[in-house]
# Entry
Amino acid sequence: MKSLELKNLGVQEMNDIEMKYVEGGGLTEIIGSVGGIIKPVVGTVNAVVDKLKDTASNIGAIIGGIVGF
# Structure
């Protein structure tokens, strides 16, 4: 198998500082993107859980009224 020399193909190396400022590079950019997605999801899940608690409470009250508790 022939070894490819990336320098011969015009590929340049980047150091860690350059990687942070390249679009799509750097861990902080990835964490920021994930954080932007997670916050609305957590808010939605919390709203659904609150609604389920209210529904369960209402169902419990209805059953309690029927049974006579």
